[in-house]
Amino acid sequence: MLKIHDPADDSLVGTMPVTAADALGSVLGSAKKAARRWASTPAAERGAAVKDAARELRERVGELAGLIESETGKPRAEAEESVLAGVGTLEQYAELGPVHRGRSLLGDPGATDLMVPEARGVVVALTPWNDPVAVACGLLGAALVTGNTVVHKPSERCPHTGGLLGTVLSSLLPDGVLQTVQGDGEIGAALAASRDVDLVAHVGSTAAGRSIASATAKTGAKALLENGGNDPLVVDAGVDPRWAAAQAATGAFANSGQICVAVERIYVHQDIADAFLGALAEEAGNRRLAPLVDRRHREGVHDQVVEAIAQGAEPLTGGELPDGPGAFYPATVLVGCTTGMRVFKEETFGPVAPVCVTPDFDQALELAATDDYGLAATVLTASMEHAQRAWRELPVGTVKVNDVFGGAPGGSAHPRRASGSGYGYGPELLDEMTQTKVVHLAPPGP
């Protein structure tokens, strides 16, 4: 039984039964049985069903946002925006699915050669707690419109949110096309190891992603992974330090730092370091943050901060556990950080801004590029030369210049190294959810 407490005041949100491990075979069997029928459904009908599901989801925005707030601590207004983003994603894939296409090839004029996309079959979607509806809608929407059936396991930290999402969407789909199971990592691992699964899509920790990759290497299923990030922010000389500090604070403290592409480590040029750090400390002191998802997660964040201070880092703000109920943690700015500290080497996923002062842009760029992760990076610079160097040299999937959370909709990048593999968003996600078959049609004998 999953027991969920509100991270703001420790009150009980509710309990959720865990799907029994011996019931997974039946769930996957239903998905496999429905797969052929759903794949042969005209693409326009699949798109229409997903569009209907999006319309129904829009009617339940308030209910879903309330669950997100109570289970994860995300403020109500932000939770509503997040659900609406998920609705928009479903609508997008409902339109893109029917126009997803293959290619014809130029071969013998007397024959026809085609590259045809086909549904993979049964997709397992393992989704996170930090943005539970928006992320799930991307994976579920893309899988469904391309003709796959889906078994969805939401994070055990937000089972009520995931359960309601599944109920709303599955009510508009044929039996077996979308099913929701509940449980912790053991249930996710069992799904990933099943030979009845054709693709495992996972957004979450690097450790879980590596376990999934190992499991799918044995079964032959495709692994589509967006895992942890340790995103750098490079602050160059020549920029307004107060503007740069506001950008850094947004990147490090938004959603209490619980964002996959949050700023996790900061390299600032020595020429503006003092002004930047003063402004960043002021930004941090003025922020009233939502709680972290639970006390267990808060302990992990605080452990990294305490360890960094013991190794010589200095807290300009924050760094102490607050009194009172809930899982709150203050916006924390650490100076004097070194690249060997765990707060610089690992994803903190909390409202912590560790800063390293560098003598020049070259060193900052080199340090930013030296990491086991490769999700995203941000560079604040007034130099076009430095901007060009940054996007070319940083080994990450997404580079943002002068806008920490900027970007046009529909962008889809490949995360690198420990951050995962495969497209996770945009039209390209439809390619991940399908497999290509080459067909050669020649006329019969002489």
What does the secondary structure layout of this molecule look like, with pairings?
Elements: E1 2-5, E2 12-16, H1 24-39, H2 43-59, H3 61-72, H4 76-96, E3 103-105, E4 112-119, E5 122-126, H5 132-145, E6 149-153, H6 159-170, E7 178-180, H7 185-192, E8 199-203, H8 206-219, E9 222-226, E10 231-235, H9 241-253, E11 263-269, H10 273-285, H11 295-310, E12 314-317, E13 332-335, H12 342-345, E14 352-358, H13 361-369, E15 373-374, E16 376-380, H14 384-393, E17 398-401, E18 416-417, E19 420-421, H15 428-432, E20 434-441
Task: Explain this structure.
This protein has 446 residues and is an alpha/beta fold. The chain is 41% helix and 21% strand. The protein has two domains: 2-227 and 419-441, 3-Layer(aba) Sandwich (Aldehyde Dehydrogenase, Chain A, domain 1), CATH 3.40.605.10; 231-401, Aldehyde Dehydrogenase, Chain A, domain 2, CATH 3.40.309.
